[in-house]
Amino acid sequence: xxxxxxxxxxxxxxxxxxxxxxxxESPAPIEIRPAAGRIEVDGDLGDxxxxxxxxxxxxxxxxxxxxxxxxxxxxxxxxxxxxxxxxGFLCEDPHPDRIRAPYVDRDNIIGTDDNIAVFIDTRGxxxxxxxFRVNPxxxxxxxxxxxxxxxxxxxxxxxxxxxxxxxxxxxxAEVRIPFSSLRYExxxxxxxxxxxxxxxxxDFRYGIYNAPIPRSSNCLICHAVPIEGLEGxxxxxxxxxxxxxxxxxxxxxxxxxxxxFLDKPARGTGGLDLKWIPGPGTAVDATINPDFSxxxxxxxxxxxxxxFAIFYPEKRPFFLEGVDLLDTPIQAVxxxxxTSPRWGARATGKLDDTAYTLLxxxxxxxxxxxxxxxxxxxxxxxxxxxxxxxxxxxxxxxTSFAAFLIADxxxxxxxxxxxxxxxxxxxxxxxSEQDKVTGxxxxxxTQTPNRSDLSSAWDGRRYSSRAMTLEWRxxxxxxxxxxxxxxxxxxxxxxxxxVPQVGxxxxxxxxxxxxxxxxxxxxxxxxxxxxxxxxxxxxLVKRQCGIFVxxxxxHNLGGEIDVVPAQKDRIGGTVVDSxxxxxxxxxxxxxRVFSRVELYGFVGDQVDVANARPGxxxxxxxxxTIKPYDHLALDFNGDRQWLDVNSNGRSGRLFTAQIGRLKAxxxxxxxxxxxxxxxxxxxxxxxxxYDFVVPSLEKSFTGSALFAYRINWQTVLFLGLGDSHALxxxxxxxxxxxxxxxxxxxxxxx
Length: 750
What we know:
The structure is a single chain. This protein is mainly beta. 1% of the residues lie in helices and 55% in strands. The strands form four sheets. The chain has a 24-stranded antiparallel beta barrel. Strands 1, 3, 6, 7, 8, 9, 12, 13 and 14 form a nine-stranded mixed β-sheet that branches. The radius of gyration is 26 Å and the shape is globular. The two termini are 41 Å apart.
């Protein structure tokens, strides 16, 4: 998460950039009927089954326009049979030569290119939805959208079929979704709702919906249009068994980095992923020895001059069923804390108005556990096995909900014992379409393992404490406000989550104003924010106030700029004053070739965290996506930071750190690709400006190559090569390891 987003975006309104300040007509419910005949998913809408399908022709341009007539005509079709839900789209275009339709990997259909997204709410609460995307090439992206916090998560994967084609009048697509990929209550009237969103990127990024989205709204799925007429949906079970096998060979330096490689014996392993859907409202997932070798490496982040642990997103498939149910105001669940699962089982479903998920897994150990504090966090090694149990139930109450979370980690007694148990309620109350109140209270009980050989933090001591958060957001046509209060006890721990800071109280105020249709800017928002953090004893931890600007406009311009005229930070026992700093995170989609460019960072005063003193420096971060032609995509991530300080009358550059990552993906077609990744890191320090010993130079390089062939997200072939370089004793970057791996997985559907 960018530093700037931690300042104000989390406290600002959900800027959908849509809707109107005037009354809008409400779309009539969609009357769906069974298909009149066979439908072949080939991108051609001439099959007999489309005759008599529900036809949706009324669409609104909700961004950047004010719920006005769209610049391009869209027609959607909806029907079903005893196994599938079918969706068809005719996307007319006055300039078909400008259609942006590159070949991309699964889940990489984003706002830079033409696509259709379908949000399906099968629970009937119009609070969260499954999301299915298709582009003019018939490629897929899928995930979930959670209105509780506006999160759109492309981690979950579902089985569905798509096809598309570009025509002389625009493009068209077909989508076929098995009912086994959806979750609904059988034997009761179906109260589904659906929202179509056409992404039409040209001079502006046009958002075209089948329902008007008011600018004063703080939700999206709440505007989904009801579906009527769904009857006789299948109730039978569905079983997916996906065994896999891998073969890997490693080469390691015989006598440290740069020496001759020693070939280790090739090793093979196998495992099994299983999904059982006993009925349409329940899914049971199980895994034995899951393999994640093909998961793409994380984008590197510079860890120098950071007070708290860095967050990385979850990418492993097993943990992603019902992921929205584990998304709570306090991040007490972060499945990446499960480092090396030996086995796992999970049940997800809904009973009447209550949705639930329960996950149990054995973690072999490895990695680290966050040891939190009020002004910094540390890590302790997790070299012991444990059983993790995580569950949450959420009951819908009108447009609001109440929920309860449990998260338990029981360490093996043979590895030192200990436990961490967290539980408590959370809620969201929507008194109106403009107001949203969210809160959570958690209690934790912790006993650390008796493993002082690993860390002084593992001494068997016990902690018991609580954490709570409460937030109110109001969003009107022009004005928006938010208030937030957090209180974390000194002894609160969430070993299954991502809670790097405890022992503090936090208060936040945001007030802003939005203006629309300002030529270059379709929307321009700005306002004031103030943050105050104090330790449990009342001592200052952080105080920060400033102004922010959120521009939205030409070529999908978006982001935030913050100006902070003064700030106080506690580093250990020292309070450090900082003067003016400007933080920025701005992106734009220039066109078909340079499809996205993002700039982020800061300039001005910044705290020297290592030595607890003021400093002055900057960060310049660049993320860019270049698509020279439809089959090739180049993604560059670069970050350069530096900090100057004054130490005992001597001024100088404390450190300069930079990281660069280039990913090149060649998509042969919609099923196969070749991906190359190279990442280089370099940091230089002036040891004379530190109060402790530090290296003057750090460098590393990692590279990987992956060929993939996918029939679906679980029937795959991966062939990969990994390579790493590190510094030797002469500060030269030399080979440090190499690995070749092969993975084959096949999904048997029964």
